[in-house]
Amino acid sequence: MIIAGVDEAGRGPWAGPVIAAAVILRGRVPGGLDDSKRLTADRREQLFAALHASACLIGVGQASVAEIDTLNILQANHLAMTRAVEALPEGPDHVLVDGNRLPQWRWPATAIVGGDGLEAAIAAASIIAKVTRDRLMVALDAEYPGYGWAANKGYGTAVHARGLAELGVTPHHRRSFAPVRARLSGV
Q1: DSSP state letter for 44
Q2: What helix, strand, coil percent values describe the chain, rounded to 5?
Q3: Which end of the chain is more exposed for a tag (fewer CB within 10 A), N or C?
Q4: Which of 11, 28, 16, 48 lies closest to 131 in space, CA to CA?
């Protein structure tokens, strides 16, 4: 049976897309896979490279800021997950998803709370999604300095709040999120 693990990165930030990854473990799997939040940035980068160099199959999907604002973050998250599984070079027989809710899709699936720390395929997806999103936010920080995105990855830190107050809303801000909506309404 071909099992894919799926996880996402970026549900909570005020800016940037939500990124999901799907991974089918194959061949020699890199050691040390774990929930991306428990790994250092350097270790995540090492495992990201090792996963891409391995025989594992990887699919990445995202939902844009506009989709997040239109659908809501949960539905956008599910859309990104669907796109990640669809991006796999080979379709899975079953999908293991980190969390307590499943997208409505065609694959049999199981939701596992804390799955990124329990299932290696979900941990691998967690690492791929996190590194992909982090790299994107670092690139956006160079384009839109003043929000601290290279460090905070779009999350609601004091630096980000100050940037929002002083510089305003960018095209990469989630307008449906309260701090951004408040800034747009002049509150």
Answers
A1: H
A2: 45, 15, 35
A3: N
A4: 48
* Residue 81: both structure tokens together: 């997950």
C-alpha 172/C-alpha 137 separation (Å) is 10
Q: Which of 163, 151, 98 is nearest to 124 (CA)?
A: 98
| Nearest of 38, 41, 182, 181 to residue 122 by alpha carbon | 38
Domain coordinates in residue numbering, the chain: 3-133
Q: With H, G, I as helix, E, B as strand and everything else as coil, classify residue 61.
A: strand
pLDDT number for residue 49: 98
Residue position matching structure tokens 């799926």: 6
Read off the pLDDT of residues 139-166 as tens digits, 9 standing for 90 and up: 999 999 999 999 999 999 999 999 999 9
The burial of 5, by beta-carbon neighbours within 10 Å (0-12 exposed, 13-18 middle, 19 or more buried), is given as buried
Which H or E run contains 111?
strand 109-112
Q: Which fold has domain 3-133?
A: Nucleotidyltransferase; domain 5 (3.30.420)
